[in-house]
Every structure is written in structure tokens, then in C-alpha cells.
């Protein structure tokens, strides 16, 4: 059960090519092609959300300079007024579990 058509996903990946290193692109493609829904659907949403942020002032996908353990999915400037944002894209069940220390969840409404 896909959210987007294969053509739309490929267009998003093509647009994101300059922002993704080879390992991240290979990871996304492997997850998108996975037959397990719990792998493919989150990969589609991650691709879509990063794609939607691509036109902000500064966007780095899994920034290499991040030093606090696990890299966030994105670092973006222009998403919030007057400050940069670190974006970690999580699946629905994990939103209600234990959150990492120092992280603040900002609920997003989809229309």
C-alpha cells in the first residue's frame, strides 16, 4: 500500500539527489523497495517531508557535523522564524513512547 506513485517518488528522489549522499540514498531506496509496510511507508513519508523542506534557506540531510550521537534526519534554516531546526522524522507509535532528552515534539497537522 503506497502513499505516492512510483513516478512521484522517483521525482522526489531526483530532486533530492544533490542533498543525499550515496549511503542515505541507498538506504531510502532499499526501504522504499521493501515489501514490509513498516519499512516502505515511513521511507515514503521521510522522502516526502525532506523533499517538502528542500527549498528552505539551508537544508542538510543527516548532517555529517552533528556530534550528539544519532544524526537527525535533517537540519533546516527557515522552517522556524529566527532559528534553525533539527528535524527527526518518527513513526506514529514512537511518538507516544519515550522521547530523547532535550527533544521537544512539535505536532504537525497534515491537510
Strand order of the largest sheet: 1-2-3
Mean pLDDT: 81
Annotation field: number of helices = 4
Count the E strands: 3
What is the string of SSEs from the N terminus onward?
A: HHHEEEH
Amount of helix: 25-40%
CA(first)-CA(last) distance: 20 Å
Strand content: 5-15%
Largest sheet: 3 strands, antiparallel
Work out the radius of gyration.
14 Å
Shape: globular
Alpha-beta classification:
alpha+beta
Unreliable spans are none
Q: What can you tell me about this protein's structure?
A:
A hairpin with a 2-residue loop joins strand 2 and strand 3. It is built from four helices and three strands; from the N terminus they run H-H-H-E-E-E-H. Helix 1 crosses helix 3 and helix 2 packs across helix 3. Strands 1-2-3 form a three-stranded antiparallel β-sheet, with no helix packed on it. It is α+β, with helices and mostly antiparallel strands and 111 residues long. The model has no long low-confidence stretch (mean pLDDT 81).
Amino acid at each position: 500500500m503506497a502513499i505516492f506513485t512510483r513516478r512521484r517518488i522517483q521525482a522526489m528522489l531526483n530532486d533530492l539527489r544533490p542533498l543525499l549522499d550515496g549511503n542515505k540514498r541507498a538506504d531510502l531506496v532499499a526501504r522504499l523497495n521493501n515489501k514490509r509496510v513498516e519499512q516502505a511507508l515511513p521511507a515514503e513519508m521521510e522522502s516526502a517531508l525532506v523533499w517538502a523542506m528542500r527549498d528552505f534557506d539551508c537544508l542538510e540531510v543527516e548532517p555529517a557535523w552533528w556530534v550528539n550521537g544519532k544524526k537527525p534526519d535533517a537540519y533546516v534554516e527557515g522552517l522556524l522564524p529566527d532559528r534553525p531546526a533539527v528535524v527527526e522524522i518518527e513513526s506514529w507509535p514512537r511518538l507516544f513512547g519515550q522521547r530523547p532528552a532535550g527533544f521537544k515534539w512539535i505536532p504537525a497537522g497534515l491537510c
